[in-house]
Amino acid sequence: MTHTKQKIHPFLMFDGTAEEAMKSYTSLFNQSEIINITHYGANEAGKEGTVLHATFSLKGQEFMVSDSNVKHDFTFTPSLSMFVTCDSEEEIDRVYNILSLDGEILMPLAAYPFSEKFGWFNDKFGVSWQLTLPL
Fold first, then answer.
1. How far, CA to CA in Å, does 108 sit from each of 13, 45, 121, 130?
2. Among the four residues 25, 26, 70, 92, which has the most C-beta atoms within 10 Å?
3. DSSP string, 77-102
4. Residue 92 CA to its chain's centroid (Å)
């Protein structure tokens, strides 16, 4: 099998918290890292030190992020969420407890007919997450 570079990247636009979010996310999952990051400099369009553009990976899946230099009337919505199949009960409990802190619980972490353990929430950055353990 030939390894090709990923061509579709989920892109998350933050309002000044992109780097904090990336660091939080990459600290929670194996095979995760910040791949590259470029910050706004002095006299550039965005606030100096915020993220102009960055790429990070979670469990091998690459994402792109930025801190918008324009204020928008919209933010993240649960209609698009990060769906993560966790490798263990320890992982789902740890990730759920940390990422849901100061967020909004949409479905509490519990057993459901479709999953041994599942939880859905918006984290403190507004990003929606669905975590599952398969049956």
1. 26, 40, 8, 10
2. 25
3. -TTSEEEEE-SSHHHHHHHHHHHTTT
4. 15
Going by C-alpha positions, the residue among 23, 21, 14 that lies closest to residue 46 is 14
Which of helix, strand or coil describes residue 54? Answer: strand
- The CA–CA distances, whole Å, from 86 to 11, 17, 40, 118, 129 equal 22, 25, 35, 10, 12
To the nearest whole percent, how much of the chain has pLDDT over 70?
97
Residue of 79, 51, 80 whose CA lies nearest to 67: 51
Query: How many Cβ atoms are within 10 Å of 73's Cβ, its own excluded?
Result: 4
Which pTM value belongs to this model?
A: 0.90
